[in-house]
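Input record, target 12 of the design panel.
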């Protein structure tokens, strides 16, 4: 009995020592993985709006009207005049992809209002006016290439531009009444560049210059004092400057996340 009692006391002592040791060690710490660091990227789709101004690169020139026999209906020279400057405003949409790791390529569409217009009289017929105007919607479809300095992006862009022009010759005098004005769509090129800065992961501001290369000759026909005539108008390219704001979204990321 004495040996059994000694063994029981020894076992109790070992149990108490183990419990005390466990109490001293406490609960094992729980380690959690640190959240990933958010790295800004320009990759994603975006929509936005802009306002700015437009002005002609050079004078518009309306040639002297010619009759059906190919003879000028009055003496030259041609009428030369400038467009008035114009407000522009509209919306943009596009997509960027950042790679390697600071280059950014993408597509951008732009549709907005432009209202450049001008007219000038002929020296050989002061009541006859050459007229040209682009007063309505225009669109640009372009590719962009940029280099990102974190949230700051410098870029160049180039593509195609489309606008409609009303051009021709008018004269309201009864004896020499003339009207050759017609509406024509002009397809040109667009080239420019700008700077964009991301305020956060969604919103960004931009400043941009874009040249709209509509430089071309447009021929229209009409009547002068009842006889058919035709005239050619040389329209210039248009300089535009604008400031805008964009909102970025990652539609592809949303789709992939939903699939997962």
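The sequence produced for target 12 reads:
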């Amino acid at each position: 009995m004495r040996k059994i009692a000694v063994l029981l006391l020894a076992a109790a002592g070992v149990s108490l020592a183990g419990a005390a040791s466990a109490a001293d060690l406490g609960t094992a710490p729980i380690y959690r993985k640190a959240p990933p660091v958010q790295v800004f990227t320009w990759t994603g789709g975006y929509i936005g709006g802009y306002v700015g101004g437009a002005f002609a690169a050079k004078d518009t020139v309306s040639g002297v009207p010619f009759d059906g026999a190919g003879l000028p209906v009055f003496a030259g020279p041609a009428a030369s005049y400038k467009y008035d400057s114009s407000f522009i405003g509209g919306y943009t949409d596009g997509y960027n992809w950042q790679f390697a790791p600071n280059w950014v390529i993408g597509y951008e569409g732009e549709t907005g209002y432009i209202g450049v217009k001008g007219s000038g009289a002929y020296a050989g017929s002061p009541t006859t006016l050459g007229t040209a105007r682009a007063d309505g919607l225009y669109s640009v479809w372009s590719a962009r290439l940029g280099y990102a300095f974190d949230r700051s992006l410098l870029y160049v862009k180039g593509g195609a531009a489309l606008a409609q022009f009303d051009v021709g010759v008018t004269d309201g005098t009864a004896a020499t009444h003339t009207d050759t004005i017609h509406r024509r769509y002009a397809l040109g090129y667009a080239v420019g560049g700008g700077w964009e800065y991301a305020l956060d992961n969604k919103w960004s501001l931009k400043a941009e210059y874009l040249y709209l290369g509509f430089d071309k000759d447009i021929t229209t026909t009409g009547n002068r004092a009842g006889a058919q005539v035709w005239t050619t108008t040389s329209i210039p390219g248009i300089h535009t400057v604008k400031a805008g704001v964009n909102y970025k979204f990652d539609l592809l990321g949303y789709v992939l996340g939903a699939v997962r």
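Residues 1-25 have pLDDT under 50 and may be disordered.
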